[in-house]
């Protein structure tokens, strides 16, 4: 405000200041204390200008006074806290609350910014007494403060231009460490250009952000259902080349990668994905398509195994040949990759060779292993030490021989992928509690491996309860029934067991008699009722056998001649 005041007011004011200074200079030397008025940078510059104007307007005959401005105050040593405060003050971007007579304006938008803000040289310059360590510390602190300023500028751009909420903008900005450094470096480099040589850092930083299309890119990525955490990671991966992100996403969409798997493909395909040539990526896709992976499956495969995008063409060919040499055709290979995409790119050759050799120890040939992997490729994702070896030891404890383990592996390979303690062991303990010995349980599993895939509480227990309460099977015979026909535990109560039970009761068979029949021949409950009716008519009408014979010999209902009765 002093610059806009009346000149006459300045004349009288500084005449008073000058006279007060001369009076203090001519004061008695015997005075104990001499009080001098100390000027700040703004008042000194104004006084020098005013004194120069007075000299030009003076009478030439009048003796000129020579004014020697007071020397700047000696540099005082500042402790770490004061130096940090002064440093933050010198780099501040927002105006803080002021009071009349403040020395520093604390705003980069002031007209006289050079005089309103303190210079870094006041406390960063080395005077020979320091060893330079404190200067390095201040430089590091200056970079941290500049980084905070840059983050505020990025956040402001997201809020004002992107119309994002303050919380979302803060969450994104806090995870953009590498991009913040990139903006700082590019903003500092712009100062070398003539059009930005006199501009402030804030303006240069905003220019860098606008030129990179950062805000529209964040909006576009959010539209593709990417979380702010993944958006920040992808932007940091680009190393400042944000246009490559949009180009890569458009290519992923062209091969049907959708939704959140776009971010998964970015984050798991390696840091060089944005530098890969699009022709190389198209060549990989075309090669997989020529070997049985359909085009509309490609997005599903790449989204769940993005490591494919980081492989060279030679490595992709070697991985495909690894499976084709096991006797697979292209259709089997394509369906295998679709069922379990990780099998083509997630595991190393050493790991896959080790697992295949372990499967061969069960007595399988290379072609049989190939067919097994084509049917259940998830086997390749199971650990030998954590899954297979404990399961083999458990089967050995149940008395299952090597051939039985091979049959279980071929018929129900999923058993070698499920958890032993949580899935298999509780069902075996349930069978043991019914009085079935371990050897019988082993034979049951070899005969009907699907038993271990049924739910214990939704399938196995309800069937056992049905046999005990509705079908007349006694507690003594329940273990025998299950051991003779374990497939009963996989039957539906509503569509199979209940209709069969009602049919036998409708024939005049009593409840306890039905239980005895099931104990002698458990397969009665698994027959189709439509097939049982002609068999029953054949026994009663053609063979003229009483109902008691059917009760005593339930296997008679399995007479094949009944199928020809018309």
From TrEMBL:
Source domain of life: Eukaryota
InterPro entries: MTERF, MTERF_sf
Listed GO CC annotations: cytoplasm
Record bears the keyword Plastid: no
Positions of region (Disordered): 54-80
GO BP field: DNA-templated transcription termination
Keywords from the UniProt entry: Transcription, Transcription regulation, Transcription termination, Transit peptide
GO molecular function, one term: nucleic acid binding
Pfam families from the UniProt entry: mTERF
Family: Belongs to the mTERF family.
PANTHER family: CGI-12 PROTEIN-RELATED (PTHR13068), TRANSCRIPTION TERMINATION FACTOR MTERF2, CHLOROPLASTIC (PTHR13068:SF98)
Protein's name in the database: Mitochondrial transcription termination factor family protein
């Amino acid at each position: 405000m002093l610059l806009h005041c009346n000149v006459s007011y300045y004349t009288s004011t500084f005449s008073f200041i000058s006279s007060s200074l001369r009076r203090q200079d001519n004061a008695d030397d015997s005075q104990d204390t001499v009080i001098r008025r100390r000027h700040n940078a703004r008042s000194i510059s104004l006084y020098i200008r005013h004194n120069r104007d007075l000299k030009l307007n003076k009478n030439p005959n009048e003796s000129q006074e020579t004014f020697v401005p007071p020397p700047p105050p000696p540099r005082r040593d500042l402790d770490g806290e004061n130096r940090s405060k002064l440093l933050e003050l010198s780099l501040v971007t927002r105006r803080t609350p002021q009071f009349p007579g403040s020395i520093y304006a604390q705003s980069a938008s002031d007209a006289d910014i050079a005089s309103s803000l303190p210079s870094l040289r006041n406390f960063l310059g080395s005077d020979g007494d320091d060893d330079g360590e404190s200067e390095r510390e201040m430089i590091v602190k200056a970079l941290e403060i500049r980084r905070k300023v840059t983050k505020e500028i990025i956040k402001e751009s997201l809020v004002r231009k992107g119309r994002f909420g303050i919380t979302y903008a803060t969450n994104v900005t806090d995870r953009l460490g590498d991009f913040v450094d990139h903006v700082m470096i590019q903003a500092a480099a712009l100062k070398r250009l003539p059009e930005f040589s006199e501009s402030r850092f804030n303006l240069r930083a905003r220019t860098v952000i606008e030129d990179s299309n950062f805000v529209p890119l964040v909006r576009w990525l959010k539209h593709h259902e990417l979380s702010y955490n993944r958006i920040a990671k992808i932007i940091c991966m680009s190393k400042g080349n944000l246009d490559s992100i949009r180009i890569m996403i458009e290519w992923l969409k062209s091969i049907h990668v959708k939704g959140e798997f776009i971010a998964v493909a970015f984050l798991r395909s390696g840091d060089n994905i944005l530098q890969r040539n699009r022709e190389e990526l198209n060549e990989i896709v075309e090669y997989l398509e020529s070997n049985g992976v359909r085009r509309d499956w490609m997005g599903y495969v790449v989204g769940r195994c993005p490591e494919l995008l980081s492989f060279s063409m030679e490595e992709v060919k070697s991985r495909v040949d690894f499976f084709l040499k096991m006797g697979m055709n292209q259709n089997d290979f394509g369906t295998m990759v679709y069922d379990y995409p990780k099998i083509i790119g997630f595991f190393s050759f050493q790991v896959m060779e080790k697992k295949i050799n372990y499967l061969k120890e069960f007595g399988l040939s290379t072609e049989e292993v190939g067919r097994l992997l084509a049917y259940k490729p998830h086997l390749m994702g199971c650990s030998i030490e954590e899954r297979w070896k404990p399961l083999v030891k458990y089967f050995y404890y149940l008395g299952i021989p090597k051939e039985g383990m091979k049959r279980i592996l071929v018929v129900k390979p999923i058993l070698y992928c499920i958890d032993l303690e949580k899935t298999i062991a509780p069902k075996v303990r349930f069978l043991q509690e019914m009085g079935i010995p371990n050897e019988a349980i082993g034979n049951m599993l070899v005969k009907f491996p699907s038993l271990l895939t049924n739910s214990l509480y939704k399938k196995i227990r309800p069937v056992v309860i049905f046999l005990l309460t509705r079908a007349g099977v006694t507690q003594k015979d329940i273990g025998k029934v299950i051991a003779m026909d374990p497939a009963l535990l996989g039957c539906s109560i509503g569509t199979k067991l209940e209709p069969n039970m009602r049919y036998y009761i409708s024939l005049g068979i009593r409840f306890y008699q039905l239980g005895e029949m099931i104990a002698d021949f458990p397969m009665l409950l698994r027959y189709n009722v439509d097939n049982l009716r002609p068999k029953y008519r054949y026994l009663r009408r053609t063979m003229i056998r009483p109902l008691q014979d059917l009760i005593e010999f339930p296997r008679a209902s399995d007479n094949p001649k009944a199928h020809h009765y018309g």
